[in-house]
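ok trying this again, last paste got cut off
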Amino acid sequence: MDVSVIIPCFNAEKYIDKCMNVLLNDKLKNIEIIMINDGSTDKTLKILNDYKKKYNNVIVLNQKNSGQAVARNNGLKLAKGKFIAFVDIDDFPSKDMLYTMYNYAIKNKCDYVFCDYYEYYFDNNKIVSNFHNKDKCKNAILTNFAPWGKLISKSLIDKIHFEFLEGKIFEDIAVIPVLGALSKNPGYIKQPLYYYNMTNISTTRKKNYDKRFENIILVSNYLYESVIDNNLLDSYYEEFAFVFLDGILKSGVLIFARYKEGIKNIKLLRKNVKAKFPKLLKNKYYKQESLYRRLTIWLAYYCPARILYLLKKFKG
């Protein structure tokens, strides 16, 4: 088996056909598609079972609602492929993504391959580059912090006992940057091969404050301990500093700023991250960002929490 594709599904009935149509028509045929139904209450499980009946390379696992991390970990336990690809069911790969990435990995003897991607807005897509550094391992750390848009060797996953952090949100950033750092020969394809669906982001934002947002502080500690345990800090200080600045501090602060209940946690998160990486705004990757992104990060870093909340409220 060349590639195992692992796809968590929760109430995904309107997305399944589009995603599966691309995967089943990929030029790489020696694949298995592992679909995990995560306690859906719509027709997701029925649709998945229909695919299972029709295609012998489709595997369906049904679990009680436990979250994406548990679904992905359960998929990894079943996977038989030499490489693993993760797909979010509301996204979809480009044509022949698996074929392109697999052949690149084999030709270049890579254990970890990532690519550029599209931010998908129906008819106005934006290409996002994952190139940040000519050093391959440093670039692997800095690539987008999600598991999708990557091809990961099963041997690497087994060797480092990789698994997703279960029971928390922000579980991707807790583990993906370290996975990139521990790869021995990462590869980068400067071509957008994945469509990240931006059309449903506003509809998935919670109207009310969710205590689980506070997981970002736990994730910050978990990621930092993993960096230390794997002796990565000295070699990749600047890279992980930017991960914490952009992926944890900025992201967490901007989420907390949407809610009055989140104001107090902005100060806690800032204190948490700054204790790990002082003088973050001197980071070389921050200085390379666009003016807009630097401004956004600067506001997350400095702006008084209540003013951020009012700005978010005014913006809507």
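PB: full thing came through this time. Strands lie at 3-9, 31-38, 58-63, 83-86, 92-93, 112-120, 126-128, 150-153, 186-197.
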